[in-house]
Design brief:
The longest helix is centred in the C-terminal third of the chain and has 32 residues. The chain is built from seven helices and no strands. The chain folds into two domains: 87 residues, no CATH class; 47 residues. Helix 3 crosses helix 4 and helix 3 crosses helix 5.
C-alpha cells in the first residue's frame, strides 16, 4: 500500500476514499464534482460553437475548469470526483481493449504502418516537449 499511497500523493494518508459516507439525503460531493466537470465541458462546447473558435469544446471547458480551480472554486467536489475517477481508471481502458479486439484484422493489415506512426509521433511529441521546456525560463 505504501507504493500506491506515494503514487497517488498521499490520498490514503489524508483519508481519500476512506472517509465516512455522507449522511442519507446529503448530496454526494463526487456526484456534484462529476456534474461540474460535465458543465465545464458543456460550457466549453457552447463557447466553441457560438464563437467559431478553432479549439475543441472540451479543451475550452478544461481551460474554464483550470481557471475555476485556480480561483479556489469547487475544489472539494472536483477533488472527490477525481478520486472516484482515479479509483476506477482501469475501467476506462475496457472500451479501448474491445476496440482493438474488434479490429484485429485491420491491425494485422496495417500493423507495420501503425507501429511506425506511433513511434514517430511519440518521438516528435517528446522532441517538441523538450524544445519547449528548454525555451522556458529557469525558475
Amino acid at each position: 500500500m505504501d507504493g500506491v499511497d506515494a503514487l497517488l500523493g498521499g490520498l490514503v494518508a489524508r483519508g481519500g476514499m476512506n472517509e465516512a459516507p455522507p449522511r442519507p439525503g446529503a448530496p454526494s460531493p463526487a456526484l456534484a464534482g462529476l456534474a461540474l466537470l460535465l458543465i465545464c465541458q458543456l460550457a466549453g462546447e457552447l463557447v466553441a460553437r457560438a464563437t467559431g473558435l478553432p479549439w475543441p469544446g472540451p479543451v475550452l471547458g478544461l481551460l474554464l475548469l483550470l481557471a475555476l480551480l485556480a480561483a479556489g472554486l469547487w475544489r472539494r467536489p472536483i477533488g472527490a470526483a477525481c478520486e472516484l475517477l482515479l479509483a476506477h481508471l482501469s475501467l476506462l481502458f475496457v472500451p479501448v481493449g474491445v476496440g482493438v479486439i474488434t479490429h484485429l484484422d485491420a491491425i494485422a493489415r496495417h500493423g507495420l504502418a501503425l507501429a511506425v506512426v506511433l513511434l514517430l509521433s511519440t518521438w516528435i511529441g517528446l522532441a517538441v516537449s523538450a524544445w519547449v521546456l528548454k525555451g522556458l525560463p529557469e525558475a
